[in-house]
Design brief:
One of its GO terms (molecular function) is transferase activity. The chain is mainly alpha-helical and 193 residues long. The chain is built from eight helices and three strands. The relative contact order is 0.08.
């Protein structure tokens, strides 16, 4: 019996177990796996009953016309949907990032003898640029740009020639990408003083 429905079991098991895990993630039920197996078999039987046998009975031109109209309707809705509709918050954040980026790259962030803290970051730190400048008005140099990753930290540190003049260096970068042992060693050797 299982051999005859193995493909349907294959299609159903993953979504069912993911749904059950998400529904009951705060409960530690001993019998969740057994309930999951029962649910998989039940969904598989329903799928076989309604889809496999239902498709075999779909010889009526009305059903095929309705399906074609539904596919065309969904396609039109998908194609006409706005691609990049941003919310007001997203627009505000984008303008804030642009403003902070221009301030950070404009000469407002020049190194002086008073700078004691170096902030190196990505778009998150760029979004916090104003707060950092208000909190550390004369002590901080903020070097933040969008789309920076942790893998680029050795190159970013090499751009700052006088690392020893800072008392603290704060690094806040995204974690996408593979951080190799070599990159960690380079970073630590640049920061050793």
């Amino acid at each position: 019996f299982v051999g005859k429905i193995s493909y349907e079991l294959y299609l159903v098991h993953f979504p069912v177990f993911i749904a059950l895990t998400n529904l009951f993630k705060h409960y530690h039920l001993k019998y969740l796996d057994i309930a999951g197996l029962f649910t998989v078999f039940l969904c598989t039987l329903l799928m076989i009953t309604f889809f496999r046998k239902g498709v075999q009975k779909m010889r009526s031109p009305k059903i095929w016309t309705a399906m074609a109209l539904m596919i065309i309707g969904v396609s039109v809705l998908v194609l006409r949907a706005p691609a990049n509709r941003l919310t007001a918050d997203q627009n505000q954040l984008q303008s804030l990032l642009k403003e902070n980026s221009s301030k950070a790259s404009a000469g407002e962030n020049q190194l002086s003898q008073e700078k004691k803290i170096l902030f190196i970051g990505d778009s998150v730190m760029l979004g916090a640029y104003q707060e950092l400048k208000e909190t550390f008005p004369k002590e901080a140099l903020v070097d933040a740009k969008e789309s920076r990753q942790i893998t680029a930290i050795p190159e970013i540190l090499k751009e700052h020639k006088d690392l020893v003049s800072y008392q603290q260096i704060v690094i806040g970068l995204g974690t996408n990408g593979v951080l190799t042992d070599d990159a960690i060693e380079q970073t630590m050797s640049l920061l050793k003083d």
